[in-house]
Amino acid sequence: MVKYPKLSMWDFGHCDRKRCTGVKLQRANLVGELRLRQKWGGVVLSPFGKKALSPADRTLILRRGIAVVDCSWARLSEVSPRDCPGRQARLLPFLVAANPVNYGKPSKLSCAEALAAALHITGFRSQAEDLLGRFNWGTAFWSINARLLRQYARCNSSKEVVAVQCKYLNITLPPPAEEGEEEGE
């Protein structure tokens, strides 16, 4: 049996429970449930994050785990960061969904895809493969995203992950403001 870091999720009840990957992982006792507004001390995979997930998050994940926000992408405006609190909110870098609901859509990952990607990027590859192996489309996710996932996993920091993402997407970001500087100064 594969040993996982602690995995949890806040469930907003937006999904069809028969097709929800987060619910399936809960039934398999791989993912615990968090009540809305319940604090999480580990990494939070959240659309409200300000920093990209990177291999540098591995130690925190080993100690505290990963939590994911289970909500519909179409109803994201109904979700508040206060409902899924944690100090270590992280954004996943650019990846393409392979789940049947959002197949081929950039960044519209299911809970299972998000958790597996986070595990892979932070060096828990066997856990990531085991987790997505529970879905018949899991191998498609690895095929579609293999190159990017390998590159993200070789990074040392969030900034490096963002640089890989930007290079892949062929975009240039302005340099970040220095610590303590306000915009417009």
Automatic annotation (TrEMBL):
Keywords: Cytoplasm, Ribosome biogenesis, rRNA processing, S-adenosyl-L-methionine, Transferase. GO terms for molecular function: rRNA small subunit aminocarboxypropyltransferase activity. HAMAP family: TSR3. The keyword Transmembrane helix does not apply. Residues 6-39 form the RNase L inhibitor RLI-like possible metal-binding domain. The keyword Metal-binding does not apply. GO terms for biological process: maturation of SSU-rRNA. This is 18S rRNA aminocarboxypropyltransferase. Coiled coil: none annotated. It comes from the Eukaryota. InterPro entries: RNaseL-inhib-like_metal-bd_dom, Tsr3-like, Tsr3_C. Residues 43-169 form the 16S/18S rRNA aminocarboxypropyltransferase Tsr3 C-terminal domain. It holds the Pfam family Ribo_biogen_C.
